[in-house]
Specification:
Elements lengths: L4 E3 L2 E5 L2 E4 L9 E6 L5 E10 L2 E6 L12 E8 L1 E4 L7 E3 L15 E4 L10 E2 L4 E3 L3 H4 L4 E2 L6 E3 L5 H11 L1 E2 L6 E10 L1 H13 L6 E7 L4 H20 L4 E7 L1 H14 L13 H9 L3 E3 L5 E9 L8 H9 L2 E4 L2 H5 L12 E2 L15 H25 L6 H18 L9 H12 L12 H7 L5
Parallel strand pairs: 9-17, 14-20, 14-21, 16-17, 16-18, 18-20
Antiparallel strand pairs: 1-7, 2-3, 3-6, 4-5, 4-7, 5-6, 8-10, 11-19, 12-13, 12-15, 19-20, 21-22
Helix pairs in contact: 2-3, 4-5, 6-7, 9-10, 9-11, 10-11
Keywords: ATP synthesis, Hydrogen ion transport, Hydrolase, Ion transport, Transport
Family: Belongs to the ATPase alpha/beta chains family.
GO molecular function, one term: hydrolase activity
Amino acid sequence: MAEIKEYRTVSEVYGPLMIVDGVSGVAFNELVQIQLQNGEERTGQVLEVDGDRAVVQLFEGSSNINLQETKVRFTGRPLHISVSEDMVGRVFNGMGEVIDEGPEIIADEYLDIDGQAINPVARDYPDEFIQTGVSTIDHLNTLVRGQKLPVFSSSGLPHNELAIQIARQANVLDSDENFAVVFAAMGITYEEADFFMNSLRETGAMDRAVLFVNLADDPAIERIATPKIALTTAEYLAYEKDMHVLVIMTDMTNYCEALREVSAARREVPGRRGYPGYLYTNLATLYERAGRLVGKKGSVTQLPILTMPEGDITHPIPDLTGYITEGQIILSQELYNKGLQPPIDVLPSLSRLKNKGTGPGKTREDHQPTMNQIFAAYAEGKQAQELSVVLGESALSETDKKYVEFTDAFERQYVDQGFTTNRTIFETLDLAWDILSILPRTELKHIKDDLIDKYLPQKD
């Protein structure tokens, strides 16, 4: 047990940071206990050590701190969370404390929330299909077990509804192994928190979920710990309890704003748009905790959700996220304005591992050919629609008109499935064939004739 050292040498407090002088033997990331003059206790973490001076980040804020009378204890260990399989079905705050009026968790283990990056040699390749029940993801931007696939949204778009839909519907196809969802909400309003909790409870999805809620009025510094705590819980359930765990983290933009706030308080030299220069490294330490391990049954799959400030995909947060992760799902304002739910724009969306989790034995033999055909036909149909707007419908050939008809049917029947419809991958593939039957057979250039003969609906 590490020796607990106590000091009364707080020299300065600014923003979420506290300076403690005259310390010795203090380490980076060490857990700190702060006792105020009125007996109130708060926690913090060592952010920086410079000689005998320690910079401590405060998780509960810095209000009402008396410099002379505040006691600071350095515990000699990092911030940790008590984990147990009993966490499934429970609700916690952003620091991992129970807030659902249920009993406290009896810990099986105490784990450091910073975790460890997965050794590349120990990684197993992600190649098992996860069915989300959302056609535009399952068929066209397939999520596989162990992947990290972010959702890029904008303010006002229904990313929360999509997150709950996936949390409710996701499962590993043809598997009787345990599946769990770890849901980390960062910087959300009370209204959003109620929506998440009520939606999960009403649908019964809460029975297999662990929910961490960090509210908008909670200290920003707590927001930085929330995804680490959620991922530590997910790793325990995956690698110790052999579960397939889907981690949904929303909103990563709020997390990055908290990083910027702390960086500014530390008076660091800012990088792009005022974000710290280590934003890429920091995000990578979170995203790279997804994966499968050789010899382990369980896995951690990530679905981070972020709102792009002003809808700008070149903003540092989506830009750097795109470099680290294996693709992105993009929500479209244009499709949302048309009333489509969910408004997923399939053309700029991408899952780099989709070909590894599809095909015979995983989904169906016609998965990849129909996927390629739909992408090609939808792109052709969008061009024909634009041509029709500029030159008039009379300028379109009969084939072009079929592509326009296909595009309308694709958006209204395939994309617009709503937030309560749960389609199996086989229902999605059958629907894709129905829509492809609008096109002349000669236009199905990405599908082999034997598959067309087998699956294409026969017209009367």
